[in-house]
Amino acid sequence: MKDNIALYAFRLYGDTVLRAAYAACGSYQEAEDITQDVFLTLHAKPQEFNDDEHLKAWLLRVTINKCRNLRKSFRMSRTQPLDEIPEQAAPGDDIAARELRAQIASLPQKYAEVIYLYYYEGYNLREIAGMTGRSENTVSSLLQRGRRKLKMEIEREDAYETQ
Q1: Domain boundaries in the chain?
Q2: Domain spanning 5-162 has what CATH number?
Q3: Dihedral of the CA atoms 47, 53, 54, 55 (nearest 10)?
Q4: b/e string for 81-108 if b means 16 or more Cβ within 10 A?
Q5: Sequence-distant (≥ 6) Cβ neighbours of residue 144 within 8 angstroms
Q6: Which of 45, 81, 143, 153 has its CA 20 to 30 A from that of 54?
Q7: Radius of gyration (Cα) for the chain, nearest Å?
Q8: Residue-wise pLDDT tens digits, 136-155
Q9: Is 80 helix (H, G, I), strand (E, B) or coil?
Q10: Do residues 5 and 46 touch, judged by C-beta distance below 8 A?
Q11: Which helix (H) or strand (E) is 31 found in, with range?
Q12: Among 138, 141, 114, 142, CA closest to 128
């Protein structure tokens, strides 16, 4: 495809990978680290891709896996909860988008992943199932439950703000 696939991929999908990592882990600093790690992995072990969509799907799959590994890691079990530290926004986000992303990131990871891939990246259920290693029915259920949880969270915050 390209001589330096990692550089090509970073230029094309760097922001996409960063946003996916941020949506999955909820911390901009961790998302930056994961993004760097994803592209270093591609650089160290170059892959062959059928086209740019195949490359993007691979990058997002690796990003999701690295976020899952981070959540399971010893370091994450010994760090301060996100709700106790001030949130740093992703560059270029407006306040409403930042708040929505924070609410998505506060969902359990299984819901945040599918919501992000479906709404922000535009993947369909079959594609998300392939990326996450789940069945289409499971992805559909996770998307429905995630929407419900997100709606309840938004309504709860709205009720809290009006008091």
Answers
A1: 5-162
A2: 1.20.140.160
A3: 20
A4: eeeeeeeeebeebeeeeeeebbbbbebe
A5: none
A6: 143
A7: 16
A8: 999 999 999 999 998 888 88
A9: coil
A10: yes
A11: helix 28-44
A12: 114
**Inter-residue contact 67 to 109 (CB < 8 Å):** yes
Three-state SS at 90: coil
The DSSP secondary-structure symbol of 73 reads: S
> What b/e sequence results for 26-57 when a residue is b if at least 16 CB atoms lie within 10 Å of its CB, and e otherwise?
bbbebbeebbebbbeebeeeeeebeeeeebbb
Whole-angstrom Cα distance, residue 146 to residue 163? 26
Q: How far is the C-alpha of 98 from the C-alpha of 159, rounded, in Å?
A: 19
Most confident of 61-70, 79-88, 154-163: 61-70
pTM for the full model? 0.62
Q: How many CB atoms lie within 10 A of CB 8?
A: 15
Kindly report, residue by residue over 81-100, the tens digit of the pLDDT.
444 444 444 455 567 777 78
What six digits make up the tokens of 65? 């896996």
- Structure tokens belonging to residue 78: 């010994």
> Token digits for 36?
């760097």
Q: How far apart are CA 38 and CA 62, in angstroms?
A: 7
H helix runs in 46-135, sequence order? 52-72, 74-77, 95-106, 109-115, 125-132
